[in-house]
Design a protein that fits this description.
- By secondary structure, the chain is mostly helical.
- The protein has 3 helices and no strands.
- The chain has one domain.
- It is elongated and about 80 Å long.
- It starts with 11 loop residues before the first helix and ends in a 10-residue tail after the last helix.
């Protein structure tokens, strides 16, 4: 089953491209009308902030993808556990234990010496 998001995904690369164009336009305007320097500086700051927000949003999207994948894997393990129990397998909880261990290993990777980071 495909889950649809209530809002279309932001096209972050397009946003960054428009931002880049706007930064160059503001720089050109600032050179041609230095009397308005405070306005241009303010707009430049706003555009810089927008770039930073786009970068942060891309990190949030990546983290959300990891959480969704983890949740889907845990749900699949739970379903496998229920099916195994219904089939009379000797250790149906193995599926959940295995997935929990895998997710813990990914959350706390071990260093070469064996201790968790």
């Amino acid at each position: 089953m495909t889950h649809r998001h209530p809002f279309p995904p932001a096209r972050l690369q397009e946003v960054l491209s428009r931002n880049h164009t706007a930064v160059h336009l503001i720089a050109t305007l600032a050179r041609s009308t230095p009397a308005h320097a405070p306005i241009w500086e303010h707009l430049d700051t706003v555009l810089y902030d927008a770039r930073a927000l786009v970068v942060e949003l891309s990190h949030v999207h990546a983290e959300l993808d990891k959480v969704r994948r983890s949740q889907a894997n845990m749900l699949a393990a739970a379903q496998a556990t229920l099916a195994a129990a219904q089939d009379g397998e000797p250790d149906p909880l193995w599926y959940l234990r295995d997935e929990v261990a895998a997710q813990q290993a990914n959350a706390f990777p071990r260093r070469a010496g064996g201790e968790a980071r």
